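FORM 12-B: Structure-to-Sequence Request
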């Protein structure tokens, strides 16, 4: 069993060729800006100060590598969509991620959406990119604690409208809801042959 509390930050990189030297599988965290990727990483590791979080969209600009229990790298990617940095950031994101998906160590993607909102055009495009390229992924609907029952039903319908009948993990990083489910699914990605 992978110990998600045994996590250390290794380095920031502009592309996957600049990754840490140890050859490990990688699980990429992707979602639009300010969706809660860094907060989720901190919650999984049980360490609120591991990955820097910001209320401003677009804070993460590089690929941040975290080594998890000598088993794999968890890679925090910059968010897509609106950022305070403007369109130059979006161009850089596209170039960085285009090269990243050529990475032979990629075990899969944790694709994070905000449960409070309908999937954006960027979310839909990324979902189709993952499917079209047969990249294994786990769909995560974050910020579940912000929803009431009717909003949870609307979230499910919104996901189904874009993705059809798909398995996803609805969770709350701040409340710890369904974190163990996500840890189990990430572990399955990493140990797949």
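FORM 12-B RESPONSE
SEQUENCE OUT:
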């Amino acid at each position: 069993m992978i110990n998600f509390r045994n996590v250390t930050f290794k380095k920031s990189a502009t592309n996957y060729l600049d990754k840490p030297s140890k050859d490990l599988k990688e699980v990429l965290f992707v979602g639009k800006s300010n969706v809660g990727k860094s907060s989720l990483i901190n919650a999984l590791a049980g360490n609120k100060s591991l990955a820097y979080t910001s209320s401003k969209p677009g804070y993460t600009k590089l690929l941040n590598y975290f080594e998890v229990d000598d088993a794999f790298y968890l890679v925090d990617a910059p968010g897509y969509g609106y950022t305070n940095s403007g369109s130059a950031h979006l161009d850089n994101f596209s170039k960085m991620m285009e090269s990243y998906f050529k990475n032979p160590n990629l075990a899969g993607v944790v694709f994070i959406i905000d449960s409070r909102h309908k999937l954006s055009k960027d979310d839909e495009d990324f979902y189709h990119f993952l499917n079209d390229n047969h990249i294994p992924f786990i769909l995560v609907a974050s910020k579940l604690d912000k929803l009431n029952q009717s909003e949870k039903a609307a979230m499910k319908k919104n996901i189904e409208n874009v993705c059809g009948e798909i398995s996803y993990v609805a969770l709350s990083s701040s409340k710890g809801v369904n974190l163990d489910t996500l840890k189990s699914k990430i572990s399955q990605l990493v140990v797949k042959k």
